[in-house]
Amino acid sequence: LLQSVSQIPIIPECERRRVNAASSTIRGAFVPACTSQGAFEKVQCEPDGRQCFCVDSRGIEIPNSRTRNGQKPDCDSIQSATVPKTKECVGAALRGPCSASMNRWYYDEQEAKCRRFTYSGCGGNGNNYETEDACTQRCAPPPMGLPKCEKGESLKTKLGVTVNCAKSDCPSGYKCSIVQQTSVCCPENDKIIGLQTSNPSDVCSMPKERGPCDKYELRFYFNAEVKECKYFFWGGCEGNGNNFEKVEECESACGIAKVKESLPTSTRPTTANNRQPHFRTTQGIRITPGGGVRNEETLAQER
What we know:
disulfide bond, 3-stranded antiparallel beta sheet, single chain, Factor Xa Inhibitor, alpha+beta, disordered C terminus, Invariant Chain, Chain I, TFPI/VKTCI-like, Kunitz/Bovine pancreatic trypsin inhibitor domain protein, two-stranded antiparallel ribbon, serine-type endopeptidase inhibitor activity, serine protease inhibitor
C-alpha cells in the first residue's frame, strides 16, 4: 500500500490550477500559463488578452505589474526591482519598470523645489515622495522657522542657506542630525560652538593654541600684538577659535586687509635623517613646527 501511494505523481501547482480552471463552471475563468516543467510562466494574461501581469514562483500576482493595453510587461525587470527604503534628495525622477501610474514627488536640484512625476509602483530611487509636503520637509525646508540644533547653530552656506545633509555630507566638526524632520549639519564639538558664539573680537584676541594632538596641519591665527594673521601648526584637535584654515578667513574675521608674512605653499610635512618634521616653500624656505624659518643657504652651511 505504501509503495502504491509513493507512486502517485505529484501535480505541480500551476498544472493543478489549470485542471481546476478547466473544470470550472465559471465562464471566462482565468487559466494560468505553465512552463513545460509545470512552473508558472512569469507573464500571465486574462482570457481576452487585454490585461497581462507578472506572477512570482507561487503564481501570486506582483503588485503594480498589470497592463491594460494588451502589451506584456517586462517581468524580468519587475521581479528584480525593489521599492527604495531610504529617502534622498538627489537624482532624477525614475518611473520604474512597473505598469501603475501613481502621482509622486521628487526634489529637482536645479530648480531647488519639489516637482510632480508619475511613478510605476516599483523600482526607481529614493528621490520619491508620496506628497509634496513630505518632499519639501525633507529636501527644501521653508526659509522661515528653520530647525535649531541642540547645541550651536546649524551649518549655513555663504549665502545664508542652511546646508541639507540629505543632499551632501557634513564637513569635519559637524554631524548630520534630523531636526524637525529636516536633515541639518549640527556642531559635534565645543570648538565649533565656540567659533559660532564668540564675537570676532573675542576670537581674534585668543592666543595661538596648538592643541594636544600630534598632527601638523597648517593653520592661521591673528596675532593681536602685531595685528597680523600668522601661520602656525595645529595638532588636529581642540585648541580655540583663533584657528582658520585659510588666511583669507583670518583676515575677514579680524579685519586685516593684507598678510605681511610670507606663507608656505606646501602643507605636507617631510622628514629626513630623523630631523624634525618641516614644510618647504617654493622660495626654498624651510619652516619647522617650532616656527623657525631658515633658507637654503643657511641649511647648506649647517650641513
